[in-house]
Prior knowledge:
With about 180 residues, the protein is an alpha/beta fold. It has helices at about 15-25, 50-60, 75-80, 110-115; strands at about 5, 30, 65, 90-95, 95-100, 120-125, 130-135, 140-145, 160-165, 165-170, 175-180.
Amino acid sequence: MRVGLVSDTHGDPTAWRKALEAWGEVDLVLHAGDVLYHGIFNPIVQTYEPRALAELLNACPFMMLHARGNCDSEVDQLALDSFILSDFAFASAEGTRVLVCHGHKWTEEELARMASDGKADMVFRGHTHVPEMKVVDGVPIVNVGSCGLPKQGGEKKTVGLLEDRVVTVIETETGETFARWELP
Length: 184
């Protein structure tokens, strides 16, 4: 099973199309929040079209699970068929149990504890727009960055792919591997 990992699309349909290209065929997409709205502290990029992104997301043929980001609101939910207003989503793909959240409300230690309590193998989070994996109290906490508004050095737009307990972070502009992490 191929699971697409994405966060912080922030209303950019061009970024979403690039994510789809980077993944190829996927069976499931996990979105760690900040779907449509750009957010008050983020720039409005030239490709910002939240209604167009909502239409693309609604037309997706695969299952998508979302966790609410700090920029997601009830009005955004009106435009989307998938439910985006839960602080957490849980998924299981080929024996890998994933706790999905945006990550802005809890410390990494709290997220690791929640994952352990819920018998999750990893936490998938967003919010920072920076790709990284940390292991906190034995729990991998994965952030694949942002395909819409990247903030790491070089500002590379990225998404992730979870397959066979390996997370591959992909640069959406080039299709090249940015990082590769094996889950313990």
